[in-house]
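Problem 12. The chain below contains 371 residues. Write out its predicted structure in token notation.
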Amino acid sequence: MKCLFRSYLKVVIVCILVTNISACKKNIESNPEKFSSDGIPWAEAMTKDGGMLIGINTGIVRIDAEGANKWIIELNNNNPKFYPTFLNQMNTGEIICIGFCSETNTTTGQPIGYLTMVKISEDGKELWRKVISDRLEYFKPESMEVIDGGDICISAVSNVFGTAYYHFMKFDTEGNLLRYKDIDKYKYLVASKNTDLYINDASNNIIRMDSSFQEHDMFSMEIQSAIGIQRLSDGFIVYKNSTDSFPVLTKYNITGVELWSNTYTKLKHHQIVSLSEESDGSLAICGTVFHDAKNTESFSAFASKDGNIRVTKKYRFEHITKGFEIFRRNSNGYFLSLVTGKYFYSYIYNVGYTEYRTRIIKLDNDGTYLE
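Solution.
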């Protein structure tokens, strides 16, 4: 599991035109071999068979390893609206979705948010749905980790009359609360390994926490201004951009000792937003090339376990094309998830807007676009 800060995407979310899952269903059924849908992905995860789960708008889509649609499930009850935020396919095949519901307080007119957990069968049927938090002015999951044994750990933030509160929660696979802890400052889960959890306190500190939410070792890594931090098989990797717009990867061992750091001076204006680790420790990387606010490309890069990049490729489907996630689908290549945007200007209303879409493409092992 990775923790992505994705500050660039938060701007996107504010300005998209959100549509419901029916538009997604129409697009997929008209061209089932190539996934494309209105809106941006709220969450994505790999399935056990090499396919993908995509939480988009207010539902979830499952595609197989060739990109063909397997099923779609609508999770929206209109009011409240449900937004899938984290997805995980359990070892038993069922899918756990953590999301937040948004509705309006009929008395004050203010928005209310609360956490909801949904369990879905392997063939796309909703098994149950449970509200797992109070209805507050703002209550949103920040991260999710599944530890050995299948327990689901969540960090979340709530807001009551302008004051932020922070929480850790642990549930079993049936949605039963096992442990709850309020914390006095901002901390969120960034990784898990076996039954240990790793948390960040919004500074350079990484803290190892056991499954009872007791904090143990603490060490520091240079993660201020980081775009993301990810747990690897033998440590952590942090990705950020230098002050002169070059991407930087830094690898640390499990106790926070820096092993190497690479600044990629041939990739100016490239921003790494996601990566995946191969079985040999090598890295598949994706991100966005920023030319200007209305002109971006997605890119992929493939690096050795020491961070030396051997090949990069770029992709553009609209003037705005941004990389989101990269997953290995099978021995023949990868899935690359993109967000594409088309800019429109209304001379009648003297206003411009951008319509965003999610697109999943297939790459070979060197990043060549297949379809």
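Discussion. The two ends are 27 Å apart (CA to CA). Students who got a different answer should revisit the alignment rule from Section 12.3.
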